[in-house]
Amino acid sequence: MTACTAMARAESMPRTANMDSARRERPGAAATVWDALRREAACLVGAEPSMARPLDRSVLRHADMAGALAALLSGKLAGEMEVATLADLIDRALADDPDIVEAAAEDLVAVRDRDPAAAGLAHPFLHFKGYQALQAHRVARHYWHAGRRLVAFHIQSVVSERFGVDIHPNARIGRRVLIDHGTGVVIGETAVVGDDVSILQGVTLGGTGKEAGDRHPKVRNGVLIGAGAKILGNIQVGMCARIGAGSVVLHPVPAFATVAGVPARLVGRRSDEVPARTMDHSLPESVFVEQGAGI
Predict the structure, then answer these.
(1) 284 close to 269: Cβ distance less than 8 angstroms
(2) How many other β-carbons are positioned within 10 Å of the β-carbon of residue 41?
């Protein structure tokens, strides 16, 4: 851990001790995280002068996290739409809905706390496409519900092309969500993702292909979804459940359950942890014993 990272970790929001505290609102998260992010960026400029320009453009020249987030996303996503136009659209969304910025701040701390590759706040803010794609989705959702669906679809399309993350603008996603790596993540129109959820690469929250209307999964708080898992249909994934990597889930998953396989089956239950926070993907020992495999 660098001195800059240690400083940011000490100054930004601490980990929450349990699910009850995680559910409580944290007013002013954006201001607290922004101060730590800016201090870390200033420290990093001294440590790595070659990064002075991108750190200034994305963080240091801005007065608050909303301005930095608008500049970051517009710079990453502009193409057919001019950077200034896209930046103005994002600025307007963040001004109209400050909760987007608060959620972005809490997501950033969740990434830092759960991903050992994060190394502070600045690195995931500048470089993690899963984090950036989620914040762009929050802006797209704002315009979807403002009736400006063409703008929302444009943002979704560009995010999908640039980041490889395809989230429908109407999907509902909570706070303190980690989309790790991001590549290949697909989240459908009527999907719901709760607070304190961790999603790894290649995950699909999709439909079965036969339904209309409300047709996508409802993922409750604290769930961990392993790499490559496919959860299909309008089914519930209960609080603090764990979905094994590569699983295909076609039926509801109870709270605190671990499921794995194709099709997924119940392989264990555990109510003493929040798997999305611990990021523990291990299966119960009994699964390996049943299969005759070593641990």
Answers:
(1) no
(2) 25
H or E stretch at 35: helix 29-47
Alpha-carbon span 55 to 247, nearest angstrom: 40
Residue 78 tokens read as 């502009």
Q: What is the pLDDT of residue 170?
A: 98
* Cα–Cα distance, 84 to 75 (Å, whole number): 9
Q: What are phi and psi of 272, to 5 degrees?
A: -110, 15
Closest CA to 168 of 153, 178, 183, 185: 153
Q: 108 with 124: CB under 8 angstroms?
A: yes
pTM over 0.85: yes
Q: Is residue 276 within 8 Å of 261, Cβ to Cβ? A: no
Q: Which of 221, 201, 27 is nearest to 106 (CA)?
A: 27
Structure token pair of residue 260: 């794995």
Q: Scanning the structure block, which residue is given the tokens 């076609």?
A: 250
pLDDT of residue 5: 59
At residue 283, the pLDDT reads 78
Which stretches in the chain have pLDDT values below 70? 1-3, 5-27, 80, 285-295
Q: Give the pairing type, strands 265-269 and 257-260.
A: antiparallel
pLDDT, position 143: 97
Beta pairing partners, 248? 230
Q: For residue 192, what are the β-bridge partners?
A: 172, 218
Which residue, chain included where needed, has tokens 């914040």?
135
The pLDDT, as a whole number, for residue 285 is 61
Q: What is the pLDDT of residue 291?
A: 47
* CA geometry: angle 237, 160, 225, nearest 5 deg: 20
Strand partners, 269: 257
What is the token pair recorded at 9? 């970790």
Residues forming a β-bridge with 199:
179, 225
Other C-beta atoms closer than 10 Å to the C-beta of 91 total 17
